[in-house]
Amino acid sequence: MRFAPTAAVLGLLALTAPSLSAGMPSGWEPGADAKRRIAAIKALDDAPGGPRLNAVIVYDPAAADKARSKGGVGLLAGRTVLVKDNIETADFPTTAGSLALAGNATGRDAPIVARVRAAGGVILGKTNLSEWANIRGNRSSSGWSGVGGQTRNPHAIDRSPCGSSSGSGAAIAAGMAWAAIGTETDGSITCPASANGIVGFKPTVGMVSRTWIVPISVSQDTAGPMTANVHDAALLLTAMAGSDPADPATAEADRHKTDFTAGLAGASLKGVRIGVMRKQSGPLPGVNRLFDRVQADLVAAGAVLVPIDYDDPDEMYRDESLVLRYELKEGLNAYLAGLPGTPKVRTIDDVIAFNSAHAEQELRWFGQDTFIAASKLNDREAYLKARANSLRLAGAEGIDRLLADNAVAALIAPTAGPAWPIDPVTGDHFISVGAGSLPAIAGYPHLSVPMGAVEGLPVGLSIIGARWDDKRVLELGAAYERARSAVLVKPAFKRWSE
Q: Is 0.85 surpassed by the pTM of this model?
């Protein structure tokens, strides 16, 4: 059935669609805003005959009252936040999209969720994701989970929302919350931000706690904000950031956290040297034209562009693959073993067995080959060697060397290609665009900001910086937003082919 928005729904979309300006509009009231967000979920996610985005798994019907009570409280002052469903919240189950964890109500807030609440944020609900954050098997379809079904891209509902934080990206593009929290191991915040036409920020690994988040990689996992503009991403990060005694990676976070919004409004590109990763812009003419326009905008704003000649080393990806699988087994076993209550699964082997026993629901579209391979890994020496090598190639010999040798403040490239058609039978159809694996493997900050669209499909610009240089990366993103000449597309809520 084709979705034809009524006048009432069109009015709702005008009120809830992402705002590109910082802060809230004049007369904004948190309770009324939360009420409109819930109405957007009902109309765009759940209503028969609507686009059925499947971005939100569950929401709090009392969120408007909670937002009203928090107006003026803390940094977030009643703003609504959706949380990816691999992050624990005390009020909703945490499933990682898997039927093996259906009903997994831990009664705990992950520390980052507790920080958001303490800052006056209202947890509106949980977003769908690629099951197990897209690590279960090859040929997966981004945005599909056994619990939530297939998330759709608001700009073209027959196109992929990309990455495992797909529900978070689609929900913000559709105006279902002020912000969302996603997680990334390699591309799972930045790719859905790019494909859905929003801002996504993967902070330095260790800036925010990973405690009580379903893990993949202790080396690369991080949560991060997904928002309508850079200012809002910086504001949510300010609320989330900080050290957590239970997560050793965050030992330095308190020294590096700050008010990430400070200075954004006046951030300038004048005289800033920026490295342009042209080889990573990919083969698509439309993406390259957008990237050319970005460079023209940056030069017009006073930036000095420096061409970067870089080729990704194959061994970096080879070693990353081993690292992720080894750490998946170790981390997931520890997480499942520590769950309160009586979950159906306590080890990765239990999950594999569960999926096999429920193959019709879980394994119809793709398998669990990555889980099976991970379950068999035991060579710690090989793992440690692979981690040291991948980190060296992405960090010291990758981003660090490119920044230093070219005397640039940051690196830029397109984030990803336009969204491809959803295809659960043969899986995702990624095109080789972007440099996101470098900051993912190194654990460095990576911001995706909308830079335009190709045939109505959004594409993001990546801004990549040095470790702990999160604030500078956000400043450059805010400055680019002001310099951007492209007119950004709004969600169409229909099939791209229509």
A: yes
